[in-house]
C-alpha cells in the first residue's frame, strides 16, 4: 500500500540574489542552507512551469521530472527537499539517480530517453565543493538542455514575489539503491507520486554505444604503444569512467585517477585545466601516455592532453569536426551545422568554411546551442566552448566523456594500419590540422571575485572604445601599424529559430588579419564578478609560424 502524505503550506518572503547565471543559480553552501532559500527557488521553478502550461499544481496533468547532481556537499539533503516540493506541487513521477548522483550529460540523456518533462540538476559545475564552498541548481527543459533565458527570467521574477511554498511531509526516501520504485499518495488531491531510483550510468552508457564503435576503441586500447590516464578530480565522472572505460572497454583501473566521487572533491578544484589538473599534467609530461583527460565536477567539461602536449578546447572542437567521419554517428548522418560560443577561438570557423557547413556564433552558455540542435536537419550538430566544453546533438548538454570517446575514435582511425612504435598521436594530428586550416593562437585571462561594481565600471570604460570605433572607425589605443581594427561591438545574438535576442554578451574587437580581443563578465562564479579577457592571433597555413609558443605570439 502506498504511503499517504499531506501537503503543508509554508509562508516565506523573497530572498534577494536568486537570479540564475549562465548555467543556473550558484551560491555558497551556507546560502542554500539558510531557511527557505532552496525551497523558494524550487517553488519559483514550479510556478514558472505552471505559468507556461506544463505543470498543474493540483496534479491533474502528468509531469515527469529527472533529478540528480554531481554528489557535492549538500546534494543528498537537497534531493530530499526537492522530492517533497515536487510531490506537493503536482509532479507525478521523478527519476532519481542512485545516491542522488547523475552527471549533467546523464541528466540530459535520461530526460530524452524517458521522455520527461524536464529535470533539476544539482551542481556548481567546476566550482569547488564542501561545506564552505559552492552549490548550484538549474532546470533543464524537455529537450534535455538548460532552460533558456525566457524560462530563467520567469523563475527569477517569481523569486522576487514569492509568499509561500508547498511541501509534502513524508519521510526521506532511501535513494541508496537503484532499480527500485516508491509510490506515495497525496491525501489532498488523491493523486499518486512515484519515485523511480535508476542506475546512474546505464542509460548514458547505452547511448554512447550507439554513437561510437566500441570494438575499434578496444582495438586501440589493446596496442602496446597506447596508454591513457583519466582524472575525474573526485567528481561525478568517476563512476562513469569506471563503468565505461574500465569495465566496458578494459582500461586498467590504475589508469583512472580520483574516480571516487567525494562531497568536497577530495580537496580538488574540479576544473579540468592546466592549473587544477596538475597531477595529470605531470603524468602526461612523460613519454608513457598518449592520451590524458580530466573532467570537471559534474562531467560536462573536459581537458584533452597528448604526450607532453596541451590541446586547447578550441582546437579540440575544430579537429573533431574535421575528423567526424571517424565517428559512426556522424559518418551515417553527416553534419548539418556547427557552433561555438563567441569567446571561443575561430578555429572552428576555418573548418566550417572549408567544408561548407552551416556555422553559428552564440553567446556563452550551452543553452544557446539547444535551438540549433533542435532545428537543424539533414545531419548532426557539433558545438563547443573555450571553457573546456564540447558536445553534439546526441544530448543537449556539453559532454566530457563523449569528447574523450570522440578523440579515441579519431586516434583509432589514424592508427588502424600504423606499426607499433609509430603511433600517430594527438600532437601530430593537430599539427596536420594546422597545415590544412591555419592556427588560431589563443589565450584567456581570468580575474576572479572582483568587486562587481568596479567590474561594471571597467566594462563601461572598454565600451567607450566600441563607441569610438562606431564614430571614427578606429581606436588608437587598440591598434598598431600591424593590427588594424575591422569591427568593434557589444556582441548581440538574435536566435533565428525563436527570434529571441540576447544583448551585452561581450565586447569584441576584431582585426583585419583575423585576430581578436574580447572582454566579458562571466556568470559562473558564486561571489563577486569574474572578468575574462580573450586574445587570439590567426596564422595562415603558409605563414611558417604554426609551431610557436602561444605566449610568444599573443
Provide the fold topology.
Layout: E1 3-5, E2 7-11, E3 25-28, H1 29-32, H2 37-51, E4 64-69, H3 75-88, E5 93-101, H4 104-113, E6 118-122, E7 134-140, H5 149-159, E8 164-168, E9 180-186, E10 192-198, H6 202-211, H7 214-221, E11 228-231, H8 237-248, E12 256-257, H9 278-284, E13 291-295, E14 302-306, E15 309-311, H10 313-322, H11 328-333, E16 335-341, H12 347-355, E17 358-362, H13 370-375, E18 380-385, E19 389-392, H14 400-414, H15 426-437, E20 439-450, H16 452-472, E21 485-490, E22 493-494, E23 501-502, E24 507-511, E25 516-522, E26 529-539, H17 550-553
Parallel strand pairs: 1-9, 4-5, 4-6, 5-10, 11-12, 11-13, 16-17, 16-18
Antiparallel strand pairs: 2-8, 3-7, 6-7, 9-10, 13-14, 14-15, 18-19, 20-26, 21-24, 22-23, 24-25, 25-26
Whole-number radius of gyration? 24 Å
Structural class: alpha/beta
Mean pLDDT: 95
* Neighbour order of strands in the largest sheet: 1-9-10-5-4-6-7-3
Number-wise, the strands total 26
**What is the CA–CA distance across the termini?**
68 Å
Number of helices: 17
Question: Beta fraction of the residues?
Answer: 25-35%
Classify the helix fraction into a percent range.
Answer: 25-40%
Which regions are unreliable across 5 or more consecutive residues at pLDDT < 50? Answer: none
Report on the biggest sheet: 8 strands, mixed
Rough outline: globular
Please explain how this structure is put together:
The chain is α/β, with parallel strands linked by helices. 31% of the residues lie in helices and 26% in strands. It contains 17 helices and 26 strands. It has an 8-stranded mixed beta sheet with strand order 1-9-10-5-4-6-7-3, sandwiched between helices. Strand 9 and strand 10 form a beta hairpin. Helix 7 crosses helix 14 and helix 10 (313-322) packs parallel to helix 12. The longest helix is centred in the last third of the chain and has 21 residues, at 452-472. The radius of gyration is 24 Å and the shape is globular. The mean pLDDT is 95.
Amino acid at each position: 500500500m502506498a504511503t499517504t502524505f499531506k501537503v503543508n503550506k509554508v509562508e516565506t518572503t523573497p530572498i534577494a540574489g536568486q537570479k540564475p547565471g549562465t548555467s543556473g543559480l550558484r551560491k555558497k553552501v551556507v546560502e542554500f542552507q539558510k531557511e527557505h532559500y532552496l525551497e523558494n527557488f524550487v517553488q519559483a521553478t514550479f510556478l514558472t512551469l505552471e505559468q507556461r502550461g506544463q505543470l498543474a499544481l493540483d496534479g491533474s496533468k502528468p509531469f515527469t521530472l529527472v533529478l540528480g547532481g554531481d554528489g557535492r556537499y549538500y546534494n543528498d539533503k537537497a534531493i530530499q527537499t526537492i522530492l517533497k516540493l515536487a510531490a506537493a506541487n503536482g509532479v507525478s513521477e521523478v527519476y532519481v539517480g542512485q545516491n542522488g548522483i547523475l552527471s549533467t550529460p546523464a541528466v540530459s540523456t535520461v530526460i530524452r530517453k524517458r521522455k520527461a518533462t524536464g529535470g533539476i540538476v544539482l551542481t556548481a559545475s567546476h566550482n569547488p565543493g564542501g561545506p564552505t564552498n559552492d552549490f548550484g541548481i538549474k532546470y533543464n527543459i524537455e529537450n534535455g538542455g538548460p532552460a533558456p533565458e525566457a524560462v530563467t527570467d520567469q523563475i527569477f521574477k517569481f523569486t522576487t514575489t514569492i509568499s509561500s511554498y508547498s511541501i509534502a511531509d513524508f519521510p526521506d526516501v532511501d535513494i541508496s539503491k537503484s532499480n527500485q520504485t516508491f509510490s506515495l499518495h497525496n491525501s489532498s488531491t488523491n493523486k499518486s507520486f512515484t519515485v523511480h531510483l535508476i542506475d546512474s550510468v546505464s542509460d548514458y552508457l547505452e547511448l554512447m554505444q550507439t554513437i561510437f564503435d566500441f570494438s575499434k576503441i578496444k582495438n586501440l586500447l589493446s596496442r602496446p604503444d597506447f596508454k591513457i590516464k583519466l582524472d575525474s578530480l573526485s567528481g561525478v565522472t568517476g563512476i562513469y569512467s569506471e563503468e565505461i572505460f574500465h569495465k566496458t572497454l578494459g582500461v586498467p583501473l590504475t589508469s583512472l585517477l580520483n574516480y571516487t566521487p567525494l562531497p568536497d572533491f577530495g580537496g580538488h578544484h574540479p576544473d579540468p585545466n592546466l592549473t587544477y589538473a596538475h597531477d595529470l599534467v605531470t603524468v602526461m609530461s612523460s613519454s608513457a601516455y598518449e592520451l590524458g583527460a580530466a573532467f570537471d565536477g559534474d562531467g560536462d567539461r573536459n581537458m584533452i592532453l597528448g604526450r607532453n602536449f596541451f590541446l586547447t578546447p578550441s582546437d579540440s572542437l575544430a579537429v573533431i569536426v574535421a575528423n567526424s567521419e571517424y565517428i559512426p554517428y556522424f559518418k551515417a548522418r553527416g553534419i548539418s551545422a556547427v557552433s561555438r560560443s563567441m569567446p571561443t577561438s575561430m578555429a572552428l570557423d576555418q573548418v566550417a568554411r572549408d567544408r561548407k557547413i552551416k556555422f553559428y556564433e552564440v553567446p556563452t552558455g550551452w543553452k544557446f546551442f539547444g535551438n540549433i540542435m533542435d532545428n537543424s536537419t539533414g545531419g548532426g550538430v557539433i558545438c563547443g566552448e573555450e571553457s573546456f566544453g564540447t558536445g553534439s546533438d546526441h544530448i543537449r548538454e556539453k559532454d566530457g566523456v563523449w569528447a574523450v570517446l570522440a578523440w579515441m575514435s579519431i586516434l583509432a582511425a589514424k592508427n588502424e594500419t600504423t606499426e607499433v612504435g609509430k603511433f600517430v598521436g594527438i600532437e601530430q594530428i593537430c599539427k596536420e590540422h594546422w597545415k590544412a586550416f591555419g592556427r588560431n593562437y589563443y589565450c584567456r585571462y581570468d580575474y576572479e571575485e572582483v568587486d562587481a561594481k568596479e567590474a561594471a565600471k571597467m566594462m563601461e570604460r572598454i565600451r567607450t572604445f566600441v563607441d569610438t570605433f562606431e564614430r571614427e572607425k578606429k581606436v588608437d589605443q587598440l591598434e598598431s601599424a600591424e593590427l588594424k581594427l575591422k569591427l568593434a561591438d557589444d556582441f548581440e545574438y538574435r536566435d533565428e529559430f525563436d527570434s529571441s535576442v540576447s544583448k551585452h554578451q561581450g565586447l569584441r574587437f576584431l582585426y583585419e588579419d583575423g585576430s581578436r580581443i574580447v572582454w566579458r563578465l562571466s556568470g559562473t562564479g558564486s561571489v563577486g564578478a569574474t572578468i575574462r579577457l580573450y586574445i587570439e592571433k590567426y596564422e595562415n597555413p603558409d605563414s611558417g609560424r604554426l609551431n610557436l609558443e602561444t605566449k610568444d605570439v599573443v
